[in-house]
Structures are given as C-alpha cells and as structure tokens.
Specification:
heterodimer, A: alpha+beta, Four Helix Bundle (Hemerythrin (Met), subunit A), Alpha-Beta Plaits, 5 domains, six-stranded mixed beta sheet, 24 helices, 46% helix, B: 145 residues, mainly beta, SH3 type barrels, five-stranded mixed beta sheet, 6% helix
Chain lengths: 680, 145
C-alpha cells in the first residue's frame, strides 16, 4: 500500500477525532453519567485506533487501545466517571495529539507513553490507589441483568437502553420493525438501502439485526429487523415502507423498557442517577441530546485539498488582473458591444469572486474548539475556578486569517485567565461568585469580524500599569499623568511590559501582548481594550474578512507605482507647498487643526528621479496608525482599485514598510505599502 | 561512459566564465521581464517580477558574486531556481547549454578562488575543453550572507 497518499487524510482525520474526543470529554465532565457522550468518545477512539494501526503507528494504536478499554468499562457501567479518571484520559489524549503532531511534521509518531498506558490500565483493572474503586465496582456488580422487554429477540446493552430511554423522554417512540422482502427479490442490498432511506427520513435506526454491514452484503435471508426511534406513528411508517418495491410485509411493535413498568424498579444506582440527571438538567441539555438524535443532515459536502482551493484562487486572481486590463481597453475603444460584454463579464467575475472567497471561509470554531481544554488546564494549574463561554463559533473567516489568529487568541485568553480572573478566595472576599467567567465572542459587523475576550475579573489598575510603565522606562511619570485611561491600557501592548508581579509560565513573560498586537496588525486588524476596575476587562480584536483581495489607492511616485490599503487612509488632500511648515527638522502641515508630520515617499523608498521644482502643490495621503496620523507625500493619485494581495515569497522577508505585492492590469508588479511601519 | 553516474546541468555565462546549476533545481529559463524595484534591500536584489501570476524576486548574479555590473542585453536571461523553499530568479549574461556531466569530473573548489566568492561555489567540473563552476544555490539564497 502506498502509505504517503493516505498520510494526509490520516493526519486530518486523526486531528478531527482527537478534537471530538476533547470536546466530548469536556462535555462528559459536566454530565458524568451521560453514556451517549461516552459512546461518542469511544467511537472516535476506536476509529483512531483502527486508522493508526493500519498506518503502522503502533504507539498511537496501543495508547488508543488502552484508552478505549477504559471507555468501554465506563460505557458498560463498570466504572464511574470521576475527575481523576478524566484527568488521565485527558492526559492520554494529550499524548495522542503530540504523536499525531509529530507524524504531521514528518516524525515517526513515537512517544514513550508507558506511564500513561500503565495508569489507564490501573483504572481499567480498578487498582487505583484509593479505595473508592472497589465500592464502585461492587455497586455495579449488584446491578441486575438487563431487562427483557417487549421484544424478546433483543438484548439491549446499557447504551442502547439509555438512548431509548432518553429519546422517549423527548417524545420519540421506539419501534421494533420487521421487514420482509419478497423471496424472489434480486437486488436485496438495493432494497435494504431504500428501506433505510425511509427509516432515516422518519427517525433514527439504533440497531439492526443482522448488522448493517451484513445487510449490505446481502448476508440475510429475506427479512431483517431494526430498532427505530421515531416521532411518527406505526401506520405511517408501515405505509412508507410498503411503498418500497419488493417489500412484502412489515411488522411494527412498540418497545417498552423495563422502567416503563412502575412495579419493576430494580435499576442500578447509576442508572437512577442517570435518569435523574437528564430529568433535572434543563433544556440546554435536552437540545444537545436532540442534536445527537437528529437524522443526519442531508447537506452533501466534499473534502477538497486546500492546495486546490489555493490554485483556484490563483487562477481567479489572474482573471481579475485580465478583467482590469479588459475594462481599461474597452474604455479606450468605447465600442458599445465590447463595453456591454466586458461589463457583463465583470459582474459575473464579481459573483465568482464572492463564491471563491466564501469557499475559503472557515468557521472560527476550528480555532475556538481547542480553547475549552486549554482553559480547563489553566484553571487547574492556577487553582482558579473558570467557566469559558463561547458564542458565535460559527462566524466565518478566511482561512488565511484563521491560520494566523490562533496564537494571538491563546495569548489573550491566557492573559485573561492569569491576570484577569482572581483566585476563588479573593473573588469570594470581594463578593463575587467564586467561579470566574471568560466569554469568547465572535461576530460579523460590516466588512469585519470581531472577536472579543471578556472576563469578569479584577480589571486593569491604572496606577499599577503606570507605575510599571515608568519603572520599565516606557514613559516618564509626568507623561503618564496626562494619559487617558484608554491610553494607559494601550501601554500593556508596549514591548517589555508585564504587570504580573510573579512570572508564571502561563503568561507574564512580557512578550505576550505586544506580539499579539503586532500579529493582529500585520493581519490588517486592530485590537483595543476596555476595562473597569473590579468588574473586568474586554479585549476586542477586529479582523478583515479576507486577506486575499483588498481595496487600495494606487499612487505614483517618480516612475514607480505603489498601492496603499484604503483601510489605513483617512483622506486625500492637495496642499500648496507654501502650507508646509517646519517643526525642527520635520516638515509638518496643519490639517484640520491638527499638526500632521509629512513623510515623503520619494525619500522613504529612495525612488530615483528628481523633484519637480516647478510644482507648487503636492498630493498628500493622510494615513493613520491607531490614533497617530501622518501625511504621505506622493507625485500623483492614480485611483482606487480592488487588488489581489500576493506575498513577496520566502526569499524576501522583512522588507521595510512593504507588506506584499499585487499585479496590475498591465502585468506589472506594484508593491503594497505597510503604513503601520511608516508611522512610529 | 554510459554506466557512469551523470549530472544534468544548465550551463550559463557570467563575464567570460561558464557556470552550472543542476537541472533538478531549475524551474525554468525566462527572457528578461520588467522588474519592479524593491526599496531598501541589498543592491543585488533587483526587485520582483510577475512570473505568470507569481511574484518572484530577482537576484543579479553578477552582483551577488561580487562581479562587475553590466547592462542587460539581448542574451540576458532569468534562470528561475528553487533552493530550499525559496523561489528566485537569477539574472545571468546568457544561458548556453543543457548537458550531462559525469559526477567524477566534479572536483571540490580550489582553496583560493578569489576569496569572497568561494562560499558560493560547490565545485568545479573539468571537461575536455571547458571548465564549469558549480554554483552553490543554498548560499546564494541565504539571506544572512
């Protein structure tokens, strides 16, 4: 077998399964007795085991196997979920992630996991150090054998019973459906498929006899039985099934579980707890369950390699360039038929642009979903109680932005947990709930996506920040006095700043927030802070929807053309040379009552060619970086245009004040100016 | 001759000497494209070109090797190479040939070969009447040097 071909798929899917494990484990921590969740985890682990064994990653397979054993014990009710067990399972998942990561980066995925395997094994065999285990095991041993119910041909395991019970609570009815095909039926598998289509429309099949695999391979005589969960009534289902060709007979019986008879109450303690829990745990929980119950969404999707999307995007970018060229030619020729065609093409390519950009959009969920785990771990390490609330995880962003945004968000969240939320003791003393809340919120607004991180912690102490900034030599004491609160908070983003008195390895190495700010700005975004002391802090990150196509102002200086992103331009102005003033050796202008320093494009970019002495006006772009402004003096404005942002390649990194390039209609390359680097 | 291990190379010219790069590292040979200058970079970085939609940096190999700069002419070519993960175009006086040279004809660079350029040379291939200087692409695209 050609392994390489599958490696990519393997890595992708492993990551997905591990992510699913992580999420479900967190869910399980909240609802320790929900066996549905255990089964989800089990399924992910099982698939992962199979895949890694096939690919020959033995360490990965053996650790997954051990984890699976523990999950199996839980699923079968031989183990009760405790935080200790979860910790070890989490640890195992961590190791698995590490291994997959190592495989992804070309390693062999080997890792010494004997300690973890040993721990898992100890749990599985019940030999944990404390005695609590024997009790559990004993309690379980007393559990009665599974009840025989309405359908004698069936043995339900614990999981199926739970599913049936929970779905009954939600108004689903469990049916035992026996379908007989005609003896002379030729394409049995096809009929089975059609019958299952009907089932899937009506509800969910939780068990079939013979198993679905066997049915598909036609390894059955002429009839088969399934357990169906549905809200429809018997007659309706029967009528639908009989509509399928070559179905001879359909028999449907309702299934009654043991608990449905009040006199028989010999369920195990555990089960009671489970049903109590699902009764009491409110509507949110139920909707969760329903999600699991819902027949699979019929939206069909395909997996496409991102590289292919990039190629598509590249080709389309070429088209955009040609479109620009065509528009120009048709304007020059002013032939009405040509104009019309070109206009039509422009509109279509506009639509195409939207579709292609949308295809590259990924929900921020892909970044967010690793955070609950991280927060849980951080909270434990710091002995804090923290609840993470995530909203708007389905907000979409371009993949290019998604790839970059993860690390800055990790920094911000760590910052909130470490510096924001107080320890439970302090919180209690201040009359707050012991458990702190961190809200991670994403939403669309106009052409931007906002991501906010809000905590209800201590807030920012203005005096402490100022004191620190002064002691670090970032500004003088007098200068500090004059700052507004907002400006003081901005100081947190200066490099070499860290307010934590103690350096922890969570954050506070003083490299955090300024790196965050730089990364976000390099993405064309902005970050701001709002804070109220003792109430909490909000970090708000504003990001562009896409980085691939941006609006720019094209300008000319000497014989060279440059593109300046519209996002950093406030306005354009033509000023008389006489209006230029000198402040020390810096040329400035008075612009709407503000003194704005002038930057000469020709000097900054060492553009060859002489200054035209006869001109007595100059064209100025007023650009900004945060609150600061500057006037960029250029020779002339060419106009506003949508351009495709292209990287300069791996060879040219760190070019001063150039963030990328674009290809103009005539095929020439124009550089895109990074105004942030120009303004200090 | 037939069973000798061979290396296929592109032979190009700078001043009066012939140089060679293994074909495996060459992505294409182009005529000179209009170059967009990039401000505030090393003098040998001539700028970037639009190579079928990909913005590609261009290095003047004469300047990179410490040779004298010369006006570009009809024979001037861009050799597009991929070294490590960096794609760049090299400006050369002319691209002369594609040929197979026996591996054993390649010798390590002589100790003294004009000092500064030595690090850019990985070897010298002696053929019957020609002397090919093998270029070390990794050090050419090394931005630290």
């Amino acid at each position: 077998m050609e392994i390489n071909q599958y490696l990519e798929v393997f890595i992708e899917e492993s990551k997905e399964h591990l992510q699913a494990c992580n999420m479900n484990l967190l869910e399980l921590e909240k609802n320790p007795s929900d066996l549905l969740i255990v089964n989800e985890i089990f399924r992910s682990a099982h698939t992962l085991k199979g895949m890694s064994a096939t690919m020959g990653y033995e360490d990965l397979a053996s650790l997954t196997h051990q984890m699976e054993n523990v999950l199996d014990e839980i699923r079968n009710g031989n183990l009760i979920v405790t935080p200790e067990i979860l910790d070890i399972v989490f640890l195992a998942v961590d190791h698995l992630e590490e291994m997959v990561e190592s495989i992804a980066s070309g390693g062999d995925g080997k890792l010494d996991v004997t300690a973890t395997v040993e721990k898992l094994h100890r749990i599985e065999t019940g030999n944990q150090d404390d005695g609590s285990f024997e009790e559990t095991a004993a309690a379980v041993a007393e559990a009665p054998p599974f009840a025989k119910d309405g359908c004698p041909s069936y043995e339900f395991d614990e999981f199926e019973r739970t599913v049936i019970r929970q779905s009954k609570e939600q108004g689903f009815e469990a049916y035992n459906v026996q379908v007989s095909l005609r003896q002379d039926c030729l394409l049995k598998a096809a009929r089975v498929y059609m019958v299952f289509e009907v089932f899937e429309q009506s509800g969910e099949v939780i068990k079939s006899l013979p198993s679905v695999d066997k049915l598909e391979e036609e390894q059955f005589d002429s009839d088969f039985t399934v357990i169906l969960l549905s809200t429809e009534n018997k007659e309706e289902i029967k009528r639908k099934l009989l509509n399928v060709a070559e179905v001879e007979n359909v028999e449907i019986n309702s299934i009654l579980l043991l608990e449905d008879f009040p006199e028989k109450t010999e369920t195990s303690d555990e089960e009671k707890k489970a049903s109590e829990l699902s009764d009491s745990s409110g509507s949110a929980d139920k909707s969760e369950d329903k999600k699991g119950m819902k027949p699979l969404n019929s939206n069909k999707t395909i997996r496409v390699n991102i590289e292919r999307l990039d190629i598509l995007m590249n080709l389309f970018e070429e088209l955009v360039i040609d479109r620009g060229r065509l528009e120009q030619i048709s304007r020059d020729l002013s032939n009405s038929e040509l104009n019309e065609t070109v206009e039509h093409m422009s509109r279509i390519s506009g639509d195409l642009q939207n579709i292609i950009l949308n295809m590259r959009m990924v929900p921020v969920e892909t970044v967010f979903n690793r955070f609950p785990r991280m927060i849980r771990q951080l909270a434990r390490d710091l002995n804090k109680k923290i609840k993470l609330e995530i909203t708007g995880a389905d907000t979409e962003l371009d993949r290019t932005v998604i790839d970059e945004i993860g690390d800055p968000l990790v920094h911000l969240l760590r910052n909130s947990v470490d510096h924001g939320i107080e320890t439970p003791e302090i919180r209690a003393a201040n009359g707050k709930e012991e458990e702190g809340t961190v809200v991670l919120r994403a939403y669309h607004s106009g052409n931007h996506v906002f991501i906010e991180i809000e905590d209800d912690g201590a807030g920012i102490n203005r005096d402490r920040v100022l004191k620190k900034a002064v002691s670090k030599g970032i500004l003088s004491e007098e200068a500090g006095e004059a700052l507004t609160d907002k400006q003081v908070y901005e100081l947190l983003f200066s490099s070499g700043f860290s307010t934590a008195e103690q350096i922890s390895d969570i954050s506070g190495r003083g490299v955090g927030l300024d790196v965050v700010k730089n990364t976000i700005e390099s993405l064309g975004g902005e970050i701001s802070i709002e804070s109220t002391e003792h109430k909490g802090t909000i970090f708000s990150v504003q990001l562009p929807l896409t980085l691939s196509i941006i609006s720019v102002m094209l300008i000319e200086t000497g014989k060279e053309k440059f593109a300046i992103p519209l996002s950093s331009i406030i306005e354009t102005a033509i000023i008389k040379k006489a209006e230029i003033l000198n402040a020390h050796d810096q040329k400035v202008i008075d612009f709407r009552g503000k003194v704005v320093p002038l930057l000469f494009m020709k000097e900054i970019f060492q553009v060859p060619g002489k200054e035209d002495e006869n001109k007595n006006v100059c064209s100025v772009l007023i650009v900004r970086k945060g609150e600061k402004m500057a006037g960029l003096v250029v020779d002339s404005f060419i106009g506003q245009q949508e351009v495709v942002l292209k990287p300069l390649g791996n060879y040219l990194t760190n070019v001063f004040a150039i963030s990328g390039a674009t290809i103009l209609g005539d095929g020439q390359v124009a550089l895109i100016v990074d105004c942030n680097a120009l303004i200090k | 001759m037939a069973d000798m291990p061979m290396l296929k190379v592109i032979v190009f010219q700078l001043t009066d000497k012939e140089y060679a790069i293994p074909v495996s590292e060459v992505k294409g040979i182009e005529k000179l494209h209009p170059i967009t200058r990039i401000p505030r970079t090393s003098p040998f970085v001539k700028g970037v070109i639009n190579l079928r939609g990909v913005v590609t940096p261009i290095i003047d190999l004469r300047l990179r090797l410490g040779l004298e700069e010369e006006e570009y002419g009809d024979h001037t070519r861009l050799i597009i190479v991929m070294a490590e993960d960096k794609e760049v175009g090299l400006i050369v006086d002319a691209a002369n040939d594609v040929m197979d040279i026996p591996l054993e004809a390649i010798e390590p660079p002589p100790e003294i070969i004009g000092s500064t350029t030595a690090e850019y040379i990985s070897g010298v291939a002696k053929l019957e009447k020609r002397l090919l200087i093998m270029i070390n692409l990794e050090s050419i695209v090394d931005t630290e040097k």
